[in-house]
Amino acid sequence: MIVHIGTREIEDVFLSFRGEDTRGGFVSHLYNDLDRKNIHTFKGNEKVGRGDEISGALLTAIEGARVSVIFFSKHYASSRWCLDELVKIMDCKKLNGRNFVFPVFYDMHLQSMKKI
């Protein structure tokens, strides 16, 4: 479902992930399955260059998402972009309380998770 507020589209689900770790795998399958069910989904860092700043469209997508799924993976925490997304997601959760946040630990070992 897509909800329009003025000229803004509100996403049902926002996916935050490190592309080099997860693109083409589980995240793509989840995105495609949600799309088939007509669940409007935004893939967070799909076309991000190194050093790029988080875009206004991406911030709007995070602010409007009802659900955020964060895929913590081997290189997630080494990406400034991913960390900026994470901070924005958690800020929105604190401010409006309606954004459900689901962490997913993707292909990680216990030792790696302790470093995050």
UniProtKB/TrEMBL annotation:
Gene3D superfamilies, per the entry? Toll/interleukin-1 receptor homology (TIR) domain (3.40.50.10140)
Q: Give the matching InterPro entries.
A: TIR_dom, Toll_tir_struct_dom_sf
NAD as a keyword? yes
One Pfam family name from the record? TIR
Provide this UniProt record's keywords sorted from A to Z.
Answer: NAD
The molecule here is called TMV resistance protein N-like
Give residue ranges for domain TIR: 9-116
- Cite the PANTHER family for this sequence: DISEASE RESISTANCE PROTEIN (TIR-NBS-LRR CLASS), TMV RESISTANCE PROTEIN N-LIKE
Locate the transmembrane regions by residue number. Answer: none
Question: One biological process GO term for this chain?
Answer: signal transduction
- UniProt cross-references to SMART domains, sorted A to Z: TIR
Keyword Transcription attributed: no
